[in-house]
Structure formats: C-alpha cells, structure tokens
Design brief:
The protein has about 325 residues and is mainly β. Helix content is about 5%, strand content about 35%. The model is unreliable at about 5-90 (pLDDT under 50). The radius of gyration is 21 Å and the shape is globular.
Length: about 325
C-alpha cells in the first residue's frame, strides 16, 4: 500500500496527547507573511551576443512557489497541495472589524445549520496548515476582514468545544472552515477578539476514496494506514476538506467514533447527516453516513486526534 505524499509547514509540534480543550497555548501574535508564499519573484536575465555593441535585458517572471514542486512525488500519487496564504504583502496592520451588533441576532454557524451568505472554499484539495481557532464564548464571523458580521460561531459544537481549522490568514484575521451547509463554507474571524483562542494540531487525516484507504499522518510522517468501507458509492461520497468536530470515547471500542464537519445531502439537523468514522464492528459498513474502519483504527484516532484536526477526502 503506497501512501500519498503530504507537505506541511515546519512548526514546533506539541505533545501528541495535548488537547485543544483548555490546553492549547495562546498565540496572540499573527504570523508575518512567509516570503516563500509570495507568488512571483522577478529574475533578471541578461542576454548578450558575441561582438554585439549593446545588450538587451529581458525581465522574466519565474514562478518560485516551492510548495507547488511535485517533482519528488512518485507517479500515480497526487500530492496534497500546501495552502497558499491570501495575506497581502504590503499589509501588516490589522483591519478593525465593524461592530457586529448583538450576536444573538446572527445565524449560528454550527452542525445542521445552513448559512445564506456563503463564502466557498477555493482550495478544497489543499491540506490546511494545522493552525486552529477556538472560542471561549460565542464569536462573530465576518464576510471578509473589516466587513460585516454574517454569522456567530458558538463555543460548543454538539457536545465538544469548538475548534475549527484556519485555511488562510491576514494580519489580525483568520479564515476558517465551518461545519454548516453547504459543504466548504468558510468565514473570517478577528483574532484579537478576547473570546478567540488559537492552537495547533500536528495531525492530518486523508481518505482516498478510490482505494478506500484512510491515512493518519503526524507532520510529514505516516503513522497508520487502514482499509475502510464507505456506506455509499465512491461517486456519491463527499469530497473536499473538513475537520474533526467531536470524539466519542464514552462507549465501548465498537461504539466509539470520530465526528467530522462534513455535511451530507440533503441538509438536515440530524447528527446522522454528517460523515462519521466508526468501527466496522459496530454494524456501520452499510451506514451511508459512516466511514467504517477497523476497531484498532478507531481506538488510535479517538486517542490521538485533536478537535479541529484537518481531514482531506479526495
């Protein structure tokens, strides 16, 4: 079994048993733009001819994005593209948000809900960096940095604390995925809100639909790979990036599960309308909302994963 490659940014990783709930280190300062994420860099090439009196200069724009270099990938292994930042190169000062007004008047961005203002995910096949946003209280979600509030993110998602993955950043702002309909909806969070927490998950999960294989990575290292069963056909299975919204460890091994923020169609507030990784021993092989995995996989996933861990289904 050949695992797909995965490229992640270098970061100081917390201990594997570190959970986001109450134990994520607060990070109040936003990162500056990484020069390597800048899209283009001009390279000046001098063209000369022997015996020529004058030389002409040609300015060539050369794409220098190292994360797009897939020459190291083996044939047949589509690489996971590292997310590019939307951060402007000439902007270092955070834009202040507009007053959101009473948060109780905004639609709640939580499981089972549909948002009328949709900001689609433009990079559904990219693995997020692992940076997370949590909320100690309900926080406002914005259409863009400095824009209007369009929804409210509650501090709890189901029975778990809310942690969502960051998919893009600007100074003072983070764009995050949301567990709402339609799939791939995102919004912006003002990081200087007193109720905002930040954290990091070193884990990534990839589900390859074509081979029914579930991969667990820690940074660049492949930890485990399992054969799984989907309760629906590959053509009907959802795809894109999502994340872990809940970890059910209260029941026996065969009843434990990993809840994902991947809504299924049609929209429903029922918890079964969201994709869940369950044990194949629990009779979930034919469950259309389940990824049926071996029992040992469920034990490892529920023990190791953090809330907000990014998951890529492709």
């Amino acid at each position: 079994m050949s695992p797909p490659p995965i490229h992640v940014r270098q970061a100081t990783l917390p201990r594997p048993d570190q959970r986001p709930s109450g134990r994520h280190r607060r990070e109040r300062k936003t990162r500056k733009a990484n020069p390597e994420t800048r899209h283009h860099r001009p390279t000046l090439v001098a063209l000369s001819a022997a015996g020529a009196v004058t030389a002409s200069l040609l300015l060539i724009w050369t794409d220098l994005r190292p994360e797009d270099d897939t020459s190291h990938a083996r044939p047949g292994r589509p690489p996971v593209q590292l997310l590019r930042s939307n951060q402007p190169e000439d902007s270092e000062t955070p834009v202040d948000p507009r007053p959101p007004g009473p948060l109780t008047t905004l639609p709640r961005a939580t499981t089972g809900k549909t948002l009328s203002t949709v900001i689609p995910d433009e990079w559904p096949d990219s693995m997020p960096s692992g940076r997370l946003v949590g909320a100690s209280a309900t926080i406002a979600l914005y259409e863009y940095p400095g824009g209007h509030a369009i929804a409210a993110l509650p501090a709890r998602t189901g029975d778990a604390d809310t942690w969502v993955p960051i998919i893009s950043e600007q100074p003072g702002w983070a764009r995050v995925l949301l567990p709402v309909h339609p799939q791939g909806t995102s919004a912006w969070v003002f990081l200087e809100d007193s109720a905002v927490r930040t954290g990091f998950s070193p884990y990534q999960v990839i589900l390859e639909r074509a081979t029914n294989t579930l991969y667990l990575y820690l940074g660049n290292s492949l930890l485990e790979a399992w054969k799984v069963s989907l309760g629906i056909t590959v053509a009907d299975a959802p795809e894109g990036r999502t994340y872990v919204t809940g970890l059910d460890t209260s029941a026996g091994d065969s009843e434990q599960s990993v809840q994902l923020g991947m809504p299924l169609q049609p929209p429903s507030e029922d918890a079964t309308s969201y994709l869940t990784i369950r044990s194949a021993e629990g009779g979930n092989v034919d469950n259309p909302a389940s990824i049926a995995a071996p029992a040992d996989a469920i034990v490892i996933l529920t023990r190791e994963l953090l809330l907000g861990t990014p998951v890529l289904i492709r």
